[in-house]
Design brief:
The protein is an all-beta fold and 232 residues long. Helices cover 0% and strands 72% of the residues.
């Protein structure tokens, strides 16, 4: 199914769906490829193997896909389930995101929870619920903006600031969180109320209210930790 101009159509089963103009699909879609290079709106659920958004796409219902790539703007008004999601542009998810691997180079805002095996961000994100992943690796430059999550949990959590054009002069926090909990934790330029882990390193630029650790703890001279406690 291809929409080059402006059109409204029903859904169904397709090998490929391509929207280059302005198109709306009123019912559920199942396809191998969903490609949006214009402006699209899907009112029903979308199930596909490959999704590429180079324009502006809105999904009113759940999306299930193996591989999602967002180069433009993607608005997901319900839940997203995928094996891999990559965001170079801007993505908004009103529900929750469940994914094997998430890679962020642009911006993503998730109103619910994020559950993943691997969460890698070189861009900015906001997770209003829980960000839970086996490995969380945040390598963020100052000029992409501040990232936020209410709670962060994982086996291995690494937050590092990468110096960009403004990096040598701008020292503000890059990550805000209420609670960060994991096995091995390394943080830079992070503001959090509570950090819990087995091995915890608080690097430069951090402002932490309380750290609870089981094995090893280190704090940089350029960080502020108000209270620390070793626990069993």
């Amino acid at each position: 199914m291809t929409i080059n101009g402006s059109g409204v159509t029903g859904g169904g089963d397709f090998k490929k769906v391509v929207i280059r103009g302005e198109g709306s699909v009123t019912t559920d879609i199942r396809c191998a490829e969903f490609i949006c290079r214009g402006t699209s709106k899907a009112l029903g659920t979308v199930q596909c193997e490959q999704m590429k958004i180079a324009g502006q796409a809105t999904f009113n219902s759940d999306v299930t896909c193996q591989d999602i790539k967002v180069f433009g703007q993607g608005e997901f008004q319900k839940n997203v389930n995928a094996e891999e999601m990559q965001v170079w542009g801007d993505a908004e998810i009103s529900g929750s995101l469940k994914c094997e691997e998430v890679r962020i180079r642009g911006k993503i805002n998730v109103h619910g929870d994020v559950e993943a095996e691997t969460f890698i961000a070189k861009g900015a994100f906001k997770v209003e619920g829980l960000l839970n992943a086996g490995t969380i690796n945040l390598s963020i430059k100052n000029f992409v903006g501040q990232s936020e999550a209410t709670e962060i949990g994982g086996d291995k959590i690494i937050v590092k600031r990468k110096n960009g054009v403004l990096g040598l002069f701008n020292k503000h926090n890059l990550l805000l969180a209420e609670t960060i909990e994991g096995d091995d934790i390394y943080l830079e330029y992070t503001n959090a109320k509570t950090v819990r882990g087995s091995n915890v390193t608080i690097g430069p630029g951090c402002d932490i209210d309380k750290v609870e650790y089981k094995k090893e703890f280190y704090v940089s001279k350029d960080a502020n930790v108000k209270d620390k406690q070793k626990v069993n």
